[in-house]
Amino acid sequence: MTRKEASGKTSAKPRKIGVLLVDDHPIVRAGLTKLIQQEADMTVCAEAASGHEALKACAEMTPDIAILDLSIKEGSGLELTKDIKVRYPKLPVLILSMHDESIYCERALRAGAKGYLMKDQAGENIIPAIRKVLAGDIYLSANMAQSILTKVATGDPARGASPVDRLSDRELEIFRLLGQGLGTKDIAGHLHRSVKTVDAHRENIKRKLHLSNATDLLQYAIQWVRSEKA
Fold first, then answer.
1. Average pLDDT score over residue span 63-76
2. Contact between residue 122 and residue 32 where contact means Cβ atoms under 8 Å apart
């Protein structure tokens, strides 16, 4: 007879909320871990820098929530969100990123994320965001929530849109990587796609943005990335 059976009681502690952190910057993960571990009912059960590592952690550690950056090693946070949605439909995803929420938030929600938080707001908002998502709600900043409500109320999906909004998720990722100075071969390697596929996406990007040549595309991408960081 076990101790539990003999006493009729259990001394097991309540299971803590398991958080998976996916970010390719160790310093960022360390800072988030410190914040999360301060909560009595939360623990960082796994960390990952790439999509492959994240999916492996999902299988092995069964986290209760995944917190993802959009920029990760060997892939895209948006594509990883879609993969998690398919493989682990009950695992909520919270996007925590430096990328402008006005450009990426709606894309993240369409990909299956349950919230979007900018990194510069994480210090005081990460724990409330985690708890809100785990409660089954959507977490957005007040400004982003108002923007989405305004679009719905006016019936104007293009309200405040930029030309870049015409791009698909994959095209936007390639456009961003171009603006960061990566060449076609590097982008193909990063996204695990062929050079031919990346070239096809580049042509589609030029067409959608009404750009006449590769030089114009590169200049536009660089300017866009700089403006995003401003």
1. 91
2. yes
